[in-house]
Design brief:
With 214 residues, the protein is of the alpha/beta class. It has a single domain, classed as TIM Barrel (Alpha-Beta Barrel), CATH 3.20.20.70. The protein has seven helices and ten strands. Strand 7, helix 6 and strand 8 form a beta-alpha-beta unit.
């Protein structure tokens, strides 16, 4: 790389909704940077604390263990935090609800029509990143739907994790359009809720890598 070339930048990948050992191992082998575990019982991909402990013990060094919560009790979050590296708040949590767990955290924003992302970024200034997801009334995430990526303000300084309907077929375009810090996928690499497809995981991560070579 010569002195005038821009620095190389790699988009990180989070595979969310891990419920099985074999899926965890496939995601790690494929090069996932982070694995997501859903602790909200309203999800079809939910796991409990005992299962979280079993799965998190199999995650190797340098792969981030992320726990997803939706307006849940602090005591549960505190317990789960023993097995996690990063907390993801996907409900209506205020900034104060996200602090105090001795773990870095990210805040998910559902991209409803009236949301002011810049204002939200200021409100959640302590967050390590903002996760931007599609909006469907009454559904806190995992809709399998995309949103209009042009609605993401170019002026955002907070790292953006792009979620919502990503698949091996559209993730390359998403990265070239949004230039996110990371992408987050769950249903787009599954046979069914919580049952991952090894080929789709590998193809998804391959497409992320390929997008950087274009």
């Amino acid at each position: 790389m010569n002195e005038t070339s821009p620095p190389l930048r790699r988009t990180r990948v989070k595979i969310c909704g891990i419920t099985r050992e074999e899926d965890l191992q496939v995601a790690v082998a494929a090069g996932a940077d982070a694995l997501g575990f859903v602790l909200w019982p309203g999800s079809q991909r939910a796991i409990g604390l005992e299962r979280l402990a079993e799965l998190s013990a199999q995650v190797p060094a340098f792969v981030t263990r992320v726990g997803l919560f939706v307006d849940q009790e602090p005591a549960l979050i505190q317990q789960a935090g023993r097995y996690l590296d990063l907390l993801q708040f996907h409900g209506n949590e205020a900034p104060d609800d996200c602090r105090g767990f001795a773990r870095p955290w990210i805040k998910a924003l559902r991209m409803r029509e009236d949301i002011d992302v810049t204002q939200a970024a200021s409100r959640y200034a302590d967050a390590s990143a903002l996760l931007l997801d599609a909006y469907r009334p009454g559904v806190p995430g995992g809709t399998g739907e995309t949103f209009d990526w042009s609605r993401i303000p170019a002026s955002l300084t907070k790292p953006v994790i792009l979620a919502g309907g990503l698949t091996p077929q559209n993730v390359g375009e998403a990265i070239r359009t949004v230039h996110p810090f990371a992408v987050d996928v769950s249903g787009g690499v599954e046979h069914g809720p919580g049952i991952k497809d090894a080929d789709r995981i590998n193809e998804f991560i391959d497409q992320v890598c390929f997008s950087h070579s274009q």
